[in-house]
Amino acid sequence: MGTKAIHQQSKDERGKMPSFDELYIDIGASSKEEAERLAPRGSYAYFDTDFFEYGGGFIKGKAIDDRAGCLIMMDMINGEPEYDAWYAFTVQEEIGTRGSKAAAFTIAPDIAIVLETTTACDIAGVSGSKKVCELGKGAVVSYMDRSTVYDRSLYSLAFETAKTNAIPVQTKTLVAGGNDSGAIHISRGGVRTCAISVPCRYLHSPSCVIKESDYLAVRALAEKMLSAVAAL
User: Fold this and answer.
1) 225 shares a domain with 120
2) What are the pLDDT digits (tens) for 125-144?
3) pLDDT tens readout for residues 33-73
4) How far apart are CA 93 and CA 128, in angstroms?
5) Does residue 32 share a domain with residue 138?
6) Domains held by the chain: number
7) pTM score
8) Nearest to 93, CA basis, from 83, 103, 85, 82
9) Is residue 40 exposed (0-12), middle (13-18) or buried (19+ Cβ within 10 Å)?
10) Which of 35, 43, 46, 100 could make an S-S bridge to 29, C-beta 3.0–4.6 Å?
């Protein structure tokens, strides 16, 4: 993916970020006609990036948001959950939480637990509450973000359940982001909702980074929360 070469840019252009229309993907076409034949309007392109483990338990890969949540649900479905539950794999969260709106309306749940990843800004140059959450500190249970005010009792129950089962847990230190909870918690007459997230650096990029211990903490907490909410 490229743009105009730096030696062909004016002084002003060098100091500005290129607009979307100025970027291009070189597919090796020699003419407009060939390009339209090889990649018709509406064709998709994506980054080809490897999945690998590195450092002290870190994992890098594309679309970990929300492959992580999907894998946790698949493990739960293929396991032996103590109680029956609906599992919804939803689409188009980033363009209007469209899938979760339809799923929540159809399922009409009493309680919903959203399994997600969330932004971790624990990188150089960021301090205090702006880190949002940190890798290595466990599952993230949110009390509020830009689309949802979460159920207070479920928020407390998640922390109590984590403590009882020695599962590392943290909360967001900044009201930021959002997820499918935004659509679910206001579906029909309202749904009590809790979000449990894997902290993830470089969210929405070709190179998301999480820590395996945090992923395992979210999986363990999700499994325990299924039993905990069933007893309410």
Assistant:
1) yes
2) 999 999 999 999 999 999 99
3) 999 999 999 998 888 889 999 998 999 999 999 999 999 99
4) 29
5) no
6) 2
7) 0.87
8) 103
9) exposed
10) 35
Report the alpha-carbon angle 216-206-119, nearest 5.
50
Handedness of CA 118, 119, 123, 129 (dihedral sign): negative
Structure tokens at 92: 């188009």
Q: What tokens were used for 78?
A: 């293929």
CA dist., res. 140 & res. 119, Å (int):
10
Q: What is the mean pLDDT of the chain?
A: 93
Do 165 and 84 reside in the same domain of the chain?
A: yes
In three-state form (DSSP H/G/I as H, E/B as E, the rest C), the secondary structure along the chain is: CECCCHHHCCHHHHCCCCCHHHCECCCCCCCHHHHHHHCCCCCCCCCCCCCEEECCCEEEECCHHHHHHHHHHHHHHHCCCCCCCCCCCCCCHHHCCHHHHHHHHHHCCCEEEEEEEEECCCCCCCCHHHHCCCCCCCEEECCECCCCECCHHHHHHHHHHHHHCCCCEECCCCCCCCCCHHHHCCCCCCCEEEEEEEEEECCCCCCEEEEHHHHHHHHHHHHHHHHHHHCC
For residue 135, being part of any structural domain is answered with yes
Containing structural domain, residue 177: 52-230
| Active site amino acids | 93
Residue 21: what pLDDT? 81
Angle between helix 212-230 and helix 152-164 axes, rounded to 10 deg: 120
